[in-house]
Amino acid sequence: MVAFGKKLKDRQIQEWQGYYINYKLMKKRVRQYAQQIELGTQDRRHVLKDFSRMLDNQIEKIVLFLLEEQGLLASRIEKLGEQHNALQDEPEIRKISELREAYRAVGQDLLKLLSFVEINAIGLRKILKKFDKRFGYRFTDYYVKTRANHPYSQLQQVFKHVGLGAVVGALSRNLHELQDRQGSSYLSIYDQPTLPLQDPVIDSIKAAVDRLTNSTNFLNFLGQHALIMQEELPTPSEEHVDDESYQFMSLLLNLANTFLYMINTYIIVPTADDYSISLGAAPTVCGIVIGAMAVAQVFSSVYFSAWSNKSYFRPLVFSSVVLFLGNILYALAYDLNSIWVLLIGRLLCGFGSARAVNRRYISDCVPLRIRMQASAGFVSASALGMACGPALAGVLQTKFKIWKLTFNQDTLPGWVMAVAWVVYLIWLCINFKEPSHDTEENHMPSQSNDEENGALEKGLNQPLLITSEDKVDEDADQDCDESEEAPEESRKPANSFGSAYRLLTPSVKVQLLIYFMLKYVMEILLSESSVITTYYFNWTTSTVSIFLACLGLTVLPVNIVVGSYISNMFEDRQILLASELMVFIGVVLSFNIIFPYSQPQYIASGLLLFVSAEVLEGVNLSLLSRVMSSRLSRGTYNGGLLSTEAGTIARVIADATITLAGYLGESRLLNVTLIPSLFIAISSILATCYTYNSLY
């Protein structure tokens, strides 16, 4: 991992060097504050005031330079506009071509300015995060709250790049007109906003603006659900994964694994209560049957994540074999008349969860240029599997025997999935190509040697005595509080859950709580649907299957609307809070208190709850990847694993709640299981309000 301080220095435009955020100075000042407070020579109030003043000065320097450069670009565009108008009367191909190149040159300079703003915005976020972590303050909350909403806010200029949109618009319009100058079209980009502009400069500018504003589209929003974390300001070596390590068929096999696993998870939901009854258990034991898979996944996620450090093929083979055996046991439990065989089968299915491997393959082996598409494919495969599972269960409504084996609506999901995993295993063995895992290791020795040689040469040129000023710089560089110049050990990935937990800031903990909440309420809704609808409405298995399949099919349309429109109109934190409130309303509407419980109430509240949770998941994981430490972007104990564990534990607790609540009777099951959902939803809303400004 390359330190942010080094990335900042490498990415700086030399002639603008004095206008970037002085990250090293501010980091040094944070360290000095810590020493002064420890010695008692400075009080906290003075530290906050002094650091606020420093930040204000840094932001003012950045903004004034930004405005100056914007003015220069606007002036150049205005002069080019005069030449453009002159061509209206006497168009010449040569002059049109020259004018287009001149506009492109302005576009290239605009790209530099956008990069300047992006680097400074990231630097500001990092130094605020470092200050909060070092002192345990909520300084970011205070600073953003007092600056961002002020009518003369300079912070808005940095994070919202006010005014640059007009420059981008002027460039786009003029280049578009010059492009169609020889054609018969006289339409402006304002007449047809969706009209594609075939110019790489504008495409690059648009990508830079989207990245800077956290603007998104359907593909990006969908990809956020995968929580495949990436480094801020990736270096050129990090931006390009070796194409030789990537093979489309291998990616497709990982997506197929995700798809089949999600089918395997939800195909039993409509019939789990009937299966439990047929084995002599209570219908609410379906909570344990469904949750057994999640219990095993808590452990399997860890060893699969660690295993993927060495191989991708072998974990996928192991996953397929274990899932095959688990489904066979699940199907045989009926003829063996054993609830324990049923549970062991589901546990084995959970031990075969290779979603950590699927995520790691996309993160490590898919080139950056298509990684977002691959992430979106991962989420789409999951959503499609969630919808197909219950739908497939609704189709398998038949009963027959072959020898002594019974095939009915309870056992057929196991038999069908066993066959599916055998077919997948054969496909995997034929087409999967194991990528190289030693690329990074091969580069390490040469890098180490280069550093040693560089240090030796540097040492020969250093004075024998170090001045006090140099000593301060050296000490500052040894700051190990997630410092960018810290020793390599302090930048290594977390190697245990304990070390990963110590890297979690309050904002990250709140986002994990939200993820826990949404997975909990979704699991309650889905897992008890068969029992609830049978008790209140006498729904058949087919009806339950259709209902669950319809819920699953809402995932992609909802993400299209949110990703393409809503997320471009509102900030992520605003959508986050609004989605939490909608989940809360959905939970409240689900209670059976006063009026007789009706099908419209159940369907409407369930749909509201599920859709709100889906919206919340995308925004939550987007914010989580933004506020999480970069040390959690790689390694075994990464951010994806932490979120997976949080969600899996939520599912386990939800399924256990259903089973325990069943002892109180089916008439009380609905309200009893919704009470914890209500409490967790309220807690997450309060926690979000507490950390709201730190999500800026």
Automatic annotation (TrEMBL):
Topology versus the membrane: Multi-pass membrane protein
One GO BP annotation of this record: transmembrane phosphate ion transport from cytosol to vacuole
Family, per entry: Belongs to the major facilitator superfamily.
Listed Acidic residues bias regions: 471-487
SUPFAM superfamilies (alphabetical): MFS general substrate transporter
Domain of life: Eukaryota
Region described as Disordered: spans on this chain: 471-494
One MF annotation (Gene Ontology) recorded for this entry: transmembrane transporter activity
Membrane found in the keyword field: yes
Chain segments annotated as transmembrane: 251-269, 281-304, 316-333, 339-357, 378-400, 412-430, 512-537, 543-563, 575-595, 601-624, 669-693
InterPro entries in UniProt: MFS, MFS_Domain-Containing_Protein, MFS_trans_sf, SPX_dom, SPXM_SPX_plant
Subcellular compartments: Membrane
UniProt keywords, alphabetically: Membrane, Transmembrane, Transmembrane helix
Record's GO cellular component terms: plant-type vacuole membrane
Gene3D superfamilies cross-referenced by the UniProt entry: MFS general substrate transporter like domains
Residue ranges constituting the SPX domain according to the UniProt record: 2-145
Phylogenetic classification of the source organism: Eukaryota, Viridiplantae, Streptophyta, Embryophyta, Tracheophyta
Chief location bin: membrane
Record-given protein name: Putative SPX domain, major facilitator superfamily
PANTHER family: INNER MEMBRANE TRANSPORT PROTEIN YAJR (PTHR23510), SPX DOMAIN-CONTAINING PROTEIN (PTHR23510:SF75)
Pfam families: MFS_1 (PF07690), SPX (PF03105)
